[in-house]
Each structure stands twice: as structure tokens, then as C-alpha cells.
Amino acid sequence: MIIDCHGHYTTAPAVHRSWRERQLGAYAAGVHPDPYRLPSDDDIAESLRDHQLRLAAQRGIDRTLFSPRASAMGHHRGDLAVSRAWAEANNDLIARVVELFPDDFAAVCQLPQTAGEPLAAAVAEVRRCAASGFVGLNLNPDPSGGAFSAPPLTDRYWYPLYEVMVELGMPAMVHVSASCNPALHATGGYYLAADTTVFMQLLEGDLFADFPDLRLVIPHGGGAVPYHWGRYRGLADTLSKPPLGEHLMRNVFFDTCVYHQPGIDLLVSVVDTDNILFGSEMVGAVRGVDPETGRGFDDTRRYVEAAPLSDEQRAAIYEGNARRVYPRLALSGS
């Protein structure tokens, strides 16, 4: 079985996206938006049939951990009440997707987050979604949208969220949203910078001494981390931290959203196979066809197939590690 740990609903129906614009317009005008209504089942099915479902079938992906569109989380837009309503709308939509296609998707939720605000609403939303069968969550380490004004993920500000994550067995993919900083292109700069920055935050702290069962997935192959693995090993030594394998890598995992063969080969040669989950983020940041290969850039399975791995290592990347990191997959029938 192949489990894709990194899927977003980038093709959500237009009626869903238009409600968001009305919501933000109502916020700017100081009035309440009209109530959110789920798209019809036909609209949901149509939005997936020729996109995620078709590509997954072509590429042999059996199930996708599916969350709201990351760039549209928009935690820097509006206030906490706006963020809460938008998160609930997105998560209700994801829940309906899974109800319609239970064999193809498992649900991962968006959090209501606003820079400088407490995390009580996020904790409540995690509990609500867990009760509906969600298997994980997306955690934005920078809800400011590019100012990096939030405290590092090792700060006690985040501890109420970690406590409920551990209690419920809900890992987080650490994923920023859109960038409002013109110096940071969202998918080519901001995403990868945030991935790398978060790893260094974790290295500097001792988060997993307090939360030994907390699990965090850093997407996009871990940003620049595998390429600079020696730097981080050296920094751990300089900062009098344990070796990375003891300090972080019992709790931190990377996905395979790296869109060329040399990148995947580097990832699997540097990072232990037990710390790599298959992911594609297909129909996401890079949707084009590679002119050098004639295949989609985000067809990451072909890179994993061609990587120097044993059958056992490949099986762990495709399925075993996802089941270990996301234990609630067993509860969702997968």
C-alpha cells in the first residue's frame, strides 16, 4: 500500500473559495458574513475526479492524507474569529470529502491561528476534528505570513497544543501558509525557509524532553536540512546538544516532496529511512510537466522507485512509517 502523507484540497469548488472572499470582505466592512454552506456532493466529486483521484490512480497511490489548501489557510488575514470560522469551514469540507471517498483520503485539519493570540481555539478545533475521525493536523509556525513574529516551536506558548496532540495521537505537519512578505515567494522561498528554520528551532531547544511522544513532519523534504546535514550535526555539537539521532530524529520526520531524482537520492542517503514518509503534494505548488522527463514534477513515486533503496526501505517510506507516525490511520479504517 502507498500512503501519501501530503495532500491539499487545492481544487476545492468555487463556491467554497467565493465564500472566503465574502468572509474577508465582511470583516473589512465590519459586518457578519453569510453562513457557510458545504458545496454539493456533486461539486466535491467533480473537483476531485479529474485531479487528485485521477493522478493517484495513475501513480498507484492508495490513500492520501488530505488537508485544506495550505496557501489558503491565510492566518494573517482577519482576526481570530475569522480564522476560526474559516478553519471550521475547511475542516467540515475535508470531512465531507472523506465521507464521500473513504478509501482514497484520510482527514487532516487546519487550525484557527492568529499571530499573538492564545491557542485555545486551535486546541478546541483539534478536539472537534479528532472526534470526527481526523488523523492529524497542519500547524503553521508563522501565522503572521512571513514576518516570523511567532515564538519558536520550542516555546511554552505552543505547549497547550502539544499536550492535546499527544493525548489524542495527532501528529502535525509543520506547514506555513501564504506569504504577505514580497521578499519571500510563497512556495519557492517561504515554504522552504520555514521548513529549515523550524528544524533549527527544534535543534536549539529541548522540546522532546518534555514531549517524547510528540511527532512533527517537516514537509518538502525538510527544506534545506538534508543538503546541510553536516552543518546541523556541527551546530548540535557546538550547542552541546546530543547527536541529531537522539535529540530530534525520534520525533521529526521529512516527506518526499522533492521534485527531482538527485534531490530524493540525497534525502535517502543522508536521512535515515525510518524518518522519511512518502509525500507528493500533487496538484500543489509545482503542477507542470518536467520537459527533461515528460513526467509531472510532483510524480514523486517515480523518484522513490529509482532511488537506491532496498525493498524493505521502500515499503517503510511508502506505508510503514506513515502508520507509525499517524497511528489514528488504524482507527480510520486504513
Descriptive tags:
334 residues, alpha/beta, 8-stranded parallel β-sheet, 43% helix, 10% strand
Structure description:
This protein has 334 residues and is of the alpha/beta class. Helix content is 43%, strand content 10%. The chain contains 13 helices and eight strands. The chain has helices at 14-29, 41-49, 52-59, 80-100, 120-131, 159-168, 186-204, 207-210, 229-238, 244-247, 261-270, 300-306, 311-325, and strands spanning 3-9, 63-68, 105-109, 136-139, 172-174, 216-218, 252-255, 276-277. An eight-stranded parallel sheet has the order 1-2-3-4-5-6-7-8. Helix 4 (80-100) links the parallel strand 2 (63-68) and strand 3 (105-109). Helix 4 runs parallel beside helix 5 and helix 5 runs parallel beside helix 6. The longest helix is centred in the first third of the chain and has 21 residues, at 80-100. The model has no long low-confidence stretch (mean pLDDT 95).
